[in-house]
User: What shape does this take?
Amino acid sequence: MSALAEILFGGLFQGSLYAMMAVGLALVWTTIGVFNFSHGVFMMLGAYIAWQLVEFGLPAAVAFPIAVVVMAGVGWILQASVVRPLIGRPNIVLVVVITTLAAGSLIENGALTIWGPRSKQIPALIDGNATIGGVGVSLHQIAIIVITPLILAALWMFLNRTRLGLALRAVAQNEDASHLVGLNVTALYGLAFAIAASLAGLAGIFMGGYRFMSPVMGSDPLLKALIVVVFGGISSISGPIFAAYLIGFFEAACSYYFGLYWTPAMLFGVLILTLMVRPEGIFASRSRGLA
Amino acid sequence: MNPILTVEGITAGYGRVTVLHDISMDAGRFGNVGLFGPNGHGKTTLLRAISGLLRPKSGRILFDGQDITGLSARAIVGTGLIHVPQGNRLFPDLSIADCMALGAYSPRARPHEAENREKVIRLFPKLAERWRQRVRTLSGGERQMVSIGTALMSDPRLLILDEPTLGLAPKIKDELCASVMDISRGGVPLIVVEQDIEFLLELTQQLYLVNHGAVATEIKPGESLDHGEIMSMYFGH
Ligand SMILES: Nc1ncnc2c1ncn2[C@@H]1O[C@H](COP(=O)(O)OP(=O)(O)O)[C@@H](O)[C@H]1O
Ligand SMILES: [Mg+2]
Assistant: This one.
């Protein structure tokens, strides 16, 4: 019983964080067709901004939303400065890998300069612990498990039930046709980046509430998000969401039965097998588009 | 009548390659306008320059007296100049309903969304049957109907069609031609690029032969030529 509870809980928790990160990466890929390698840095920055606001004396309930909104602005600015000028280039995917990596490393070093290397922590969403099915868990982690699906559902509703969401899905599929129905393609690109950065920032706030923060805290989550997105299929946002939870459960089961040491190797094994059998990802249809 | 669209000496191309060489034309003086000519001579490029997808290197484009040269495609859609691109690639994973909603995206078209949707369904009843179906699952003819329907949702004051019958089976093609004639009778002026000269002669009153990125010949009403003469112009160059 407690084994199952532990795997279930660990899977849901890790899956939530992976999903939150991966969805932003997928959103940017499907709308703009580029990989954002500063996505992990967005996560870090969101956490540090939240920490700073709490330091200034703001209550977490105010500081966290402000940090998320600020991250939307950061995402927009980054898009306008290192992505938009390159759109239309034939080798845009590779060029943007480099520009976003460069921007990310700048921001990372900036964070190091401003906030120093010493580890920090931000308040948990909810303080306290509980025991479920014989497993001791923090209420912070339970909150993440509950809030993440709500946010992802809200994102899904936004993309599928609003006209602006429809416009984002359209840009993902055909840029010329989007221009010809009068969509503001540039603004939609900015919006995709802003949403992605907000979600990454929120993931950072989640993480900073149970683990020590450092300026490089985003690099491992970025790697995981890339794995999730490759595994789930890059062409939609529902694929990566399912894949995130699947990988979360897989990791939880592996580390329970084989130990933490073997988990990354087994994960990569599964990933390589998946790519050999289904290069487009397990949940992907063979097209690019948000759904 | 005054022209609704005037193209004055447009030079445009892709990168260092110039495709359009100082091309001039106008539309709306006599009715619908047809463009024809061999493939790869710049018809599509001209339409892309008109609708703002491509920024001309020089020249001027006036729509209804307003200088629209260099405006964004979105701003041009906002004036009511609507372009249906060649090849009906559209939005493959959106439904017909989604496409129609996108067609009515501009603030100009939004208030007329319901009535325009009625019009589209009256013109293309087939689309109503497949309203929630993804565009990629439709036939070529149906996709072309969605393309044109989307443009009608934008409440066009001038409608540009780039090879609307390209690649369609003869029967489907005839149906589509009839629908385009209907749109014209409904009072929307057209600029149509088409390989089918018979269709152009029936639909339009003014023809341009586009060759090497310039107008080789303009045919105005009263100078109407027969099919054979046009064919010889077509291949004579
Ligand atoms: N995106 C593009 N990039 C570079 N050259 C292009 C592009 N599109 C068209 N061309 C070139 O421009 C010329 C005119 O093409 P186009 O306007 O499509 O002709 P048409 O519509 O008359 O067949 C052709 O030589 C074509 O190869
Ligand atoms: Mg063409």
Notes: The mean pLDDT of chain B is 93. The beta strands of chain B are 5-14, 17-27, 33-36, 58-63, 66-67, 81-84, 158-162, 190-193, 206-211, 214-219. Residues 68 and 166 of chain B are 29 Å apart (CA to CA).
